[in-house]
Amino acid sequence: MIPRNAEKSLLSLAKGYPVVALTGPRQSGKSTLVKHVFKDKPYVSLEDIETREYAQGDPKAFLAQFSKGAVLDEVQRVPTIFSYLQTVVDTNREPGLFILTGSQQFGLYQHITQSLAGRVASVVLLPFTYDELQRAEMAPKTLEGLIVKGLYPPVFDRSLDASIWYSNYVRTYIERDVRQMIQVRDLSTFQRFVRMCAARTGQLLNLSSLANDCGITHNTAKSWISTMEASFLLYLLKPHFRNFNKRLVKTPKLYFLDPGLAAWLVGIQKPEQLLTHPARGALFETFVVAELLKRRFNGGLEPNIYFWRDRTGNEIDVVIDNGTALTPLEIKSGKTVVPDFFSVFKRWESITGMHGQKGWLIYGGESSQNRQECVVLPWHSITEVTV
Questions:
Q1: Averaged pLDDT, 92-106
Q2: Which of 82, 216, 304, 332 could bond 363 through an S-S bridge, CB–CB 3.0 to 4.6 Å?
Q3: What number of other Cβ atoms are within 10 A of residue 215's Cβ?
Q4: Residue range 67-71: average pLDDT?
């Protein structure tokens, strides 16, 4: 097993909370991780039909089997169990009693909020981070290879062909989860919608455009976006609320949470295709934003990244808000550092009046630089960014 950065957070939280929930997309490695970290606890998958029927039919007796706690995988499949879990953990306040996993965040969090508020801590596990692959000496050597292959664990654990795996992933998991969460009469329309979203990764979310292109209503497009967000396929990056005396853009930006999945959905299957593909910049931006989110999620923290854009076209790709300072971060897929890269930091200073706060520039090249305006980092040094 490739060691995961979230392991430390899980162990720490299990010492202070009776219930720890691990959420994330299907095939991100949740089951493997909890089996490893909590190997002394019984592991129960509620995907198993017989086990699920038992838990649904007699949840009290089902939980009584586990006096010392257990790992309950895909627990959102049995919504009635949460109120019984509340009774058990209130009786036995032992830390780390139950470990829950789920791949549909809205369903899981809804039940946690209703029945387990104050008793549970949560960690989100996305696919591998780049530094996890680096430590395991399994990271692709080129940026193009990394983006096309993506970072889902099965592609690396089993040395699978990425394009074949993504094809099966979309068909097996995305379509199945969609059927569980919403009523889709025409699955082909939803498939087209997912591909349209991938083609817009890194762009402002335009629900009207998506709806028109897919022949669906605005409300349906909104519902489907929420479904994809709930399944951890995409993330809506919010604009930073700080105005700086300008009219702000208030629409979020859409990002897929894995560049490999987005690349496959737009038809890219080989690294060489990415060299001149028009989606190169957006997919590189997708990779960077996903890595920044993983850093926070693995630590059990809420995201602290935004973007900033005003109505006159001034924009910062990412704004890192640490509570006392705002740090700008720009993302450029080019392999060569050019002077134009730095103009955005000067505009940021003039608009915000924030002087002396060095920013970050992540680009598609190979060498680091320490400039007056920012620290320049190559794509493979993204872990050096402080979030």
A1: 85
A2: 332
A3: 11
A4: 94
pLDDT exceeding 90 applies to what percent of the chain? 72
Question: What is the C-alpha to C-alpha distance for residues 347 and 358, in angstroms, rounded to an integer?
Answer: 13
- Across the chain, mean pLDDT equals 91
Helix segments in the chain, DSSP class H:
7-13, 30-37, 49-57, 59-64, 81-91, 105-115, 130-135, 143-149, 153-157, 162-169, 175-181, 187-199, 207-214, 218-230, 259-265, 271-274, 280-298, 343-352
| Residue type, position 322, single letter | N
**Could you tell me which of 32, 126, 123, 115 has the C-alpha nearest to residue 78?**
115
For residue 106, the model assigns a pLDDT of 57
Nearest to 71 by CA among 21, 13, 29: 21
Ordered DSSP codes for 255-321: EES-HHHHHHHTT--SHHHHTS-TTHHHHHHHHHHHHHHHHHHHTT----EEEEEBTTS-EEEEEEE
Q: How many residues does the chain have?
A: 387
Least Cα distance to 382 among 357, 362, 358, 359 occurs for: 362
For 130, the token pair is 């780049």
Q: Predicted confidence band at 171 (pLDDT cuts at 50, 70, 90)?
A: confident
pLDDT at 235 over 80: yes
Instruction: List the beta bridge partners of residue 22.
Output: 101, 123
Domains of the chain and CATH, by start: 7-124 (3.40.50.300), 130-277 (1.10.10.10)
